[in-house]
Specification:
The complex is a heterodimer of chains A (308) and B (308). Chain A has 308 residues and is α/β, with parallel strands linked by helices. Chain A is built from 10 helices and 14 strands. Chain A has 2 domains: 6-217, P-loop containing nucleotide triphosphate hydrolases (Rossmann fold, 3-Layer(aba) Sandwich); 228-291, Alpha-Beta Plaits (2-Layer Sandwich). In chain A, strands 6-7-8-3-9-10 form a 6-stranded mixed sheet, sandwiched between helices. The radius of gyration of chain A is 24 Å and the shape is elongated. In chain B, helix 3 (55-67) runs antiparallel to helix 4 (74-85). With 308 residues, chain B is mainly α. Chain B is globular and about 75 Å long. Chain B has one domain (2-47, 91-302). The chains are: A alpha/beta (308), B mainly alpha (308).
Chain lengths: 308, 308
């Protein structure tokens, strides 16, 4: 396996006598989108701030491309682009001037690169306007643009879809996937919104009270676990017939729920079932597959009522 | 490395001059100079034109009037010197006006304190500090780039003050005179070039400016509160020297910054505390100055940048 893009080694943060982050150990792989999930106050932001050197590490270390953020700050941070919390930029300057100022802080960023990044986030038309006139979505995009200027191999986005409208959220999600897949950038995203994370992440680490309690793969590749819930909508009169057929031919105990048959099944078993039902002249109005949601998994892992 | 520092200073200047407030401040400075020129031009007594034949009698009359209330008697000494050496007063010229404008360095100090107090605290207020500190530039470098930028602003404002004082001086009083000024030093009247006096008096005022600007910068860096930084620095600058009479007989009195900061006491010979020497005062000021800078630097580089 490839070198990890980022390693957290026994990372701890203590403020006063209170341990806020209680020893995190995990790796972020290149080209993956890693979700950092947890309720507010779980230590997400503190951890992210330690990753970028804004907060001193009490114990342990963060290694970025093998370089310690503690002992080789410049070497490590050069690989990172980030938005910490809100995309706050200089409101009194144009978007372009903001990028220009940040580009001067890292050697080797050309004007062409600035133009390229502006195009990537789709701000060509408004880049010369003052940032204070930007909408939140435009600021978010400019924030991503400043984070991408120096072609980082790790992109850290704290609550990237916060305050965006649905189309904005979809757009950001699209960028993030594209960066990970096409440019092999490791993206670390934090959020307290499960559904959000599920759509864009490859793996999700769940943080609770400063501890990593679980890391979940979002798209499980192992097909033997019946993960999907199939919902078949068919004529009311035929429900019983269909149920019987499923029981006899496939040994599936389906549940009748308002003229819908519900049963768990693995993906590769579905075509023969549908075929059998059709051959038996069951009138089906719809077949839907629902993946067991992350929410179910997480609530199971964390316990009830802790995720907002 | 050094080019990196240069870029950081350049960035600070870009940010400073992108703010309307900076231009308003420089505008205020020009307006104040213009106002002062108008007052000097119109006020009685400021521009006395002496008649070639009777100027000696005029000065003697002036001396008799002055003797009643001018306790220090510097003007009397100067008038006597003029009579003895046959030096007719020229009235105010552009050079005199430029020299007299040195009291406006207190306006300059005010503006510099505002810039110094805001330059770090504002980044925290705007939230941009999080973007600034996650670049491959050490906090120490950023700290000194900002400090350099404050001093550059003071220098720029000083140049503005000079240019406009000279310009309005030319306009209202005309060039003229031989550029020789009379000054009382240790009870003796000495002739000095106006340039020497300008360099000397502006220079001594600038010492104050730099010290208070550094103080404001320290508070800004340490407490991240611009209003507090500006408020305390201005308060101490204006009120501090009035404390001196109350502490002048105390043993610790001469170690207090205020007792030493007014270096003009050594050019006029009227010392605030009898056993002060120029060397002692200069050393004391430097010690305070370095303490301000070091406290600001330590707190800026060591303190966590945590959330609000």
């Amino acid at each position: 396996m490839a070198e990890p893009a980022m390693q957290l080694i026994g990372l701890k943060k203590q403020i006063g006598s209170k341990l806020i982050v209680k020893g995190l150990d995990f790796d972020i792989r290149p080209g993956e989108v890693f979700g950092f999930l947890g309720p507010n106050g779980a230590g997400k932001t503190t951890t992210i701030r330690m990753m970028v050197g804004l907060i001193r590490i009490s114990e342990g270390d963060v290694r970025i491309q093998g370089k310690s953020i503690k002992s080789d700050f410049k070497g490590a941070i050069g690989h990172v682009g980030a938005i910490v919390e809100n995309p706050e930029l200089y409101g009194f300057m144009s978007g372009y001037k903001n990028l220009l100022v940040f580009s001067r802080m890292i050697p080797g960023i050309t004007r062409d690169r600035i133009d390229e990044v502006v195009k990537l986030v789709g701000l060509e038309k408004t880049i010369n306007q003052k940032v204070k006139r930007y909408s939140l979505g435009m600021r978010q995009r400019l924030g991503i643009a400043q984070a991408l200027l120096h072609r980082p191999s790790i992109l850290i986005l704290d609550e990237p879809t916060n305050g965006l409208d649905p189309s904005g959220i979809r757009e950001i999600r699209h960028y993030i996937r594209k960066l990970a897949e096409e440019e092999n950038v490791a993206v670390i995203v934090s959020s307290h919104l499960l559904s959000e994370m599920e759509l864009m992440c490859d793996r999700i680490g769940i943080l609770k009270n400063g501890e990593l309690i679980s890391i979940q793969e979002v798209h499980s590749t192992d097909g033997d676990v019946p993960e999907e819930m199939v919902k078949i909508d068919c004529a009311a009169a035929q429900i019983e017939t269909a149920k019987q057929l499923l029981q006899e031919q496939f040994g599936i105990a389906a549940v009748d729920n308002n003229d819908q048959l519900l049963f768990p099944i693995s993906r590769d078993q579905m075509p023969p079932i549908i075929k059998a039902l059709a051959v038996a002249d069951i009138e089906m109005y719809g077949v839907a597959v629902e993946r067991k949601t992350l929410e179910d998994k997480f609530l199971h892992v964390i316990g009830e009522n802790v995720i907002e | 490395m050094s080019s990196n520092f240069f870029q950081l200073v350049r960035n600070e200047q870009t940010k400073l001059y992108s703010q309307v407030a900076t231009w308003i401040m420089l505008g205020i400075l020009v307006v104040v100079v213009l106002g002062f020129a108008l007052i000097v031009r119109t006020a009685d007594g400021f521009v006395t034109n002496y008649d070639d034949a009777t100027w000696k009698q005029d000065l003697q009359q002036e001396n008799q009037d002055l003797a009643e209330y001018d306790a220090t008697g510097t003007q009397i000494l100067i008038n006597n010197y003029r009579i003895e050496n046959d030096l007719k007063p020229e009235g105010t010229t552009a050079w005199d006006f430029l020299y007299q404008s040195n009291f406006m360095t207190s306006v300059l100090s005010l503006l510099t304190i505002i810039v110094a107090g805001g330059i770090i605290a504002n980044e925290f207020r705007w939230g941009t500090i999080k973007l600034l500190l996650i670049r491959p530039a050490s906090r120490t470098k950023i700290f000194f780039a900002k400090y350099t930028s404050v001093l550059l602003f003071a220098l720029t404002a000083l140049i503005v003050l000079f240019i406009f004082s000279w310009l309005f001086g030319m306009l209202f009083f005309g060039l003229g005179g031989d550029g020789v000024m009379l000054q009382v030093k240790d009870g003796e009247v000495v002739e000095t070039s106006v340039w020497v006096r300008i360099a000397q008096d502006y220079g001594l005022q600038l010492v104050k400016l730099v010290v208070w600007a550094t103080f404001a910068f320290m508070i800004s860096a340490a407490l991240r509160n611009g209003a507090l930084a500006i408020g305390t620095a201005i308060f101490l600058m204006f009120v501090g020297s009035s404390v001196v009479p109350f502490i002048s007989d105390k043993a610790f009195g001469k170690y207090v910054l205020f007792s030493n900061l007014d270096l003009t006491q050594f050019t006029t010979g009227y010392k605030l505390i009898e056993d002060l020497t120029l060397t002692f005062s200069v050393v004391t000021i430097i010690v305070y100055y370095l303490i301000f800078l070091v406290i600001g630097w330590i707190l800026f580089t060591k303190r966590d940048v945590a959330g609000h």
